[in-house]
């Protein structure tokens, strides 16, 4: 069956939520928010990173591997049913149990007929205070990908990936018109006064720059709330919310608050991707013959 023609203007919804200690409650509340977004006219809906639980990577605890699930699995099937019923595209971030001892931080992409189009496994895995993800997640091995959905071509990257222009570029080069970034990022309370404003500004700036450099839309969805995980050292993480959608010139189209849940809605015009790229022809003028050094860890100067 031929895929219906994609409309040029579509509505995107980002589900900025606070998480409880109950995974089933988080799933049901996220499904409820997705249904509400669909009733409000959303056509592509994206969850925050690891929405089914609190951000457990604040410590290294083998018990938290029990939070993982296979793909396809219960969460995938629930969102496939929702996508089919409401004719929406869904991007959902999950803790994937791939095999015994092998786990990934994964996002699934579900088309508006309920078809599971594929998955993206987080490529860049951090290991910072209260972000001990290397203990839980193997690096992604599926590469950077984009998927043609009923409402446009989307690419997905996850949280720490958002700091890397190479990831955004390689995804955009596969035709992604919108880059989605499910995210869990916030402040260490003890550092917020000194570094908080600069940290948040850098996070937003780097992602808006991906929109400019690639002439595409960027949609980043973060969680909110102050989460403390038993066994973790310190005062937990104060997630800064402020999910946003940026246009292909880096302009902010919509932005959520810092301190409460929100279904953030934004209309995007997919035709603007081509218009922007012809006015700012960065892809045309790339010197692909001169970038070989990007595949090396460091470029030593002759005196080194």
Question: What keyword list fits this structure?
Answer:
304 residues, alpha+beta, 28% strand
Summarize the structure in words.
Helix content is 23%, strand content 28%. The chain has 304 residues and is an alpha+beta fold. It has a single domain (9-295), classed as Nitrilase/N-carbamoyl-D-aminoacid amidohydrolase (4-Layer Sandwich). Strands 5-4-3-2-1-17 form a 6-stranded mixed sheet. Strands 8-9-10-12-15-16 form a 6-stranded mixed sheet, covered by helices on one side. It has a 3-stranded antiparallel sheet with strand order 11-14-13. Strand 3 and strand 4 form a beta hairpin.
The number of helices is 5
First CA to last CA: what distance?
60 Å
Strand order of the largest sheet: 5-4-3-2-1-17
What are the segments in which pLDDT stays under 50 over at least 5 consecutive residues? none
The percent range for helix content is 10-25%
- Give the strand content: 25-35%
Q: Strand-and-helix sequence, N→C? A: EHEHEEEEEEEHEEHEEEEEEH
Number of strands: 17
Rounded radius of gyration (Å): 19 Å
Please, how many domains?
1
CATH topology name: Nitrilase/N-carbamoyl-D-aminoacid amidohydrolase
Instruction: Assign the CATH superfamily.
Output: Carbon-nitrogen hydrolase
pLDDT averaged over residues: 96
